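Box 3.1. Reading complex inputs
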Amino acid sequence: MTTVSVPAGWPATEEEARAVQDELRARVLLEPGPPVGAGHVTGVDVAYDDERDVVAAAAVVLDAASLEVVAEATAVGRISFPYVPGLLAFREIPTVLAALDALPYEPGLVVCDGYGLAHPRRFGLASHLGVLTGLPTIGVAKNPFVFTHADPDAPRGSASPLLAGDEEVGRALRTRADVKPVFVSVGHRVTLDDACAHTLALTPRFRLPETTRRADSLCRRALQEATIRH
DNA sequence: GCGACAG
DNA sequence: ATCTTGTCGC
């Protein structure tokens, strides 16, 4: 497991962070991403111990066809930013980057626990991570955040637009029949249709993608191990 | 101005 | 995110 410190020049105030978002936003690419079910799909997630100022990140690479784990990596560090809705990326990204760097394989599509385009400034965690790494990224969130949506039909695969006013910024996607939908948005180098198709391919059994389930449990374990002593 | 608000 | 046991169900 690798150890990270807060990057030099990392934004220290909300104003600085928003300025960074506004600058990087122009670099997002809207283009066809990797094919569904081919190559690698990587889940990233982060767990915190605010009390001890520790953050642990995990990156788990799956074979996109079988969903078997191919590789895992973790990283721990100091918390680099407080939680502020709309600025989540500044809290998660340094440690996530370190975990991704520690992987022995190319990540392929990266699936984030949170939003991409569906963001107050249209530059969420998935967009930010995509621009910094150049990798294709999507965001799959558990809550609608500040957006509105109609309830999708009951069958798995049903979807309804996730709206900011009348702008479709993502999709509420039912990954299990009769279960609360997940909220999918584009990060970098992927279309919304493909982001949803990938999400469905990653949810053969549970509401949340296998990628985020695996990354979530791994980063919690990493946090425990980093925190159990001291 | 106040509250809500991904994780 | 995090605080948290047993319990219902596939």
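In summary: The mean pLDDT of chain A is 95.
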